[in-house]
Design a protein that fits this description.
heterodimer; A: mainly beta; Protocatechuate 3,4-Dioxygenase, subunit A; two-stranded antiparallel sheet; 2 helices; globular; disordered N terminus; B: mainly beta; binds fe (ii) ion
């Protein structure tokens, strides 16, 4: 965790405010699990202090060779995961459009049949002995990332009597400050389940949902190997310190 | 036609779901051999400066049931009050302390647990010192946007009394929801998502 991000002076401005009308509200009863897990009192607004504008750094040296290859990182030698082979790539940007260098991107997903390797997942679809379901990578100097995986299957879940999650990949991202920390999900262009999903529909703004749908990119597809989906992720932007109230008396 | 600010919008948050451990603590989820260890399990080593403490607790839902599928991350200063981050411009933090921890809640009992050190004080925006605190970030199934809060230390009454963030809480009877109780070297910080004891969460 001690590697420095290359060629960037650290920024110390506070982050742009989150837009509460853009993110899903805590209480969204269409997604039943929120009912008992949503705080009911108003959150207290807190201008970013140094505790929020700082955050941990992860060095490329912590990554293993196969961390960004979910087709192989759990497979026996010489074998590979079953399912449609895809590449997911894109950029981690902030709201100013700047690439976020050195961002840790962690992903997890179900296998091609829609089954998670988790003791609480009882779906009858088979486990794939060669698929674990986790991967990670760190963005380059311009914020680019990419990983290889198989396209996950849709799966049923007990929110309603016949509810199915659209195909999706879970994403966890660290930017440069702990207040930029974000977890979200990537969906696939054209999946009709997206617009029926109660979890997707916790998001109040259609444009915000569109921002989570990855597009097939034939120009990045590797012929005879893997299709490519492009998924950009936007983290909170950061104020310039030039005009901001000083954090301390320096 | 006006000009455009051309700012992008932050990607919308989505719940971490019930299988967050596969991605963020795979060894805990019995997915072995992909990563050598789960990230964030070791915050300290034998050379870390500061008082060794354990921080533990549970997260209760609105029915009073401990949540057993959550993921908790913490972020804190070192013993001298410096963050191990490139955005820390006041000095160099202890290289033997990461400042960042990640822990699942136990699948049976719901307890999370961190082995860490007591942080030093860091300044508020205007230079006044804040009381020692640990930033908490909580993700789980049923939580659409991860929750942010702070843990303060029950044995820091004087510092807590002058803390500018705690001072901002209008309803004073809610302040104790942010203060961990000390027993030996263990601080217990229980988090309540709803109800009379609902923890103060921050919009950061
Ligand atoms: Fe999922």
């Amino acid at each position: 965790m001690t590697d420095r991000r290359p060629n960037r002076a650290p920024e110390t401005g506070s982050f742009f405010q989150r837009d509460p009308l853009w993110h899903p509200p805590a209480f969204a009863p269409g997604y039943k699990s929120t009912v008992l897990r949503s705080p009911r009192k108003a959150p207290i607004s807190l201008d970013n202090t140094i505790s929020e504008i700082t955050g941990p750094v992860f060095g490329h040296s912590m990554l293993g060779d196969l961390d960004d290859d979910m087709i192989h990182n759990f497979a026996k030698p010489g074998e590979s995961a079953i399912g449609p082979r895809i590449i997911v790539y894109g950029r981690v940007l902030d709201e100013r459009g700047k690439g976020v260098a050195g961002a840790l991107v962690e992903v997890w997903q179900a296998n091609a049949g829609g089954r998670y390797r988790h003791k609480r997942d009882g779906y009858l679809a088979a486990l794939d002995p060669n698929f674990g379901g986790c991967g990670r990578t760190i963005t380059d100097e311009d914020g680019n990332y990419a990983f290889r995986t198989i396209q996950p299957g849709a799966y049923p879940w007990p929110n309603g009597p016949n509810e199915w999650r659209p195909q999706h990949i879970h994403f966890s991202i660290f930017g440069h400050g702990f207040a930029q920390r974000l977890i979200t999900q990537m969906y696939f262009e054209g999946d009709p389940l997206i617009w029926k999903c109660p979890i997707v529909r916790t998001i109040p703004d259609k444009a915000a949902i569109d921002g989570l749908i990855a597009l097939l990119d034939m120009n990045a597809t590797i012929p005879m190997d893997a299709r490519a989906y492009k998924f950009d992720i936007v983290l909170r932007g950061r104020r310039s310190t030039m005009f901001e109230n000083r954090l301390e008396g320096n | 036609m006006t000009q455009s600010l051309s700012h992008l919008k932050e990607s919308a948050s989505q719940t971490a779901g019930p299988y967050v451990h596969i991605g963020l603590t795979p060894n805990f989820a019995d997915i072995k051999g992909v990563y050598p260890a789960d990230l964030g399990t070791a915050m300290v080593d034998e050379k870390t400066k500061g008082e060794r403490i354990t921080v533990t607790g549970r997260i209760f839902d609105g029915s009073g049931t401990p949540i057993r599928d959550a993921l908790v991350e913490i972020w804190q200063a070192d013993a001298a009050g410096l963050y191990n981050s490139p955005s820390e411009t006041r000095g160099s933090a202890d290289l033997h302390f990461t400042g960042w921890g990640r822990a699942p809640t136990d699948m049976e009992t719901g307890y999370y647990r961190f082995e860490t050190i007591k942080p030093g004080r860091v300044p508020f925006r205007d230079g006044r010192l804040m009381a020692p605190h640990v930033t908490f970030w909580i993700a789980a199934r049923g939580i659409n946007l991860a929750l942010s809060t702070r843990m303060y230390f029950g044995d820091e009454e004087k510092a807590n009394a002058e803390d500018p963030v705690l001072a901002r809480i209008e309803h004073r009877n809610r302040v104790p929801s942010l203060i961990a109780t000390r027993e030996g070297s263990t601080f217990t910080f229980d988090i309540y998502l709803q109800g009379d004891k609902e923890t103060v969460f921050f919009d950061i």
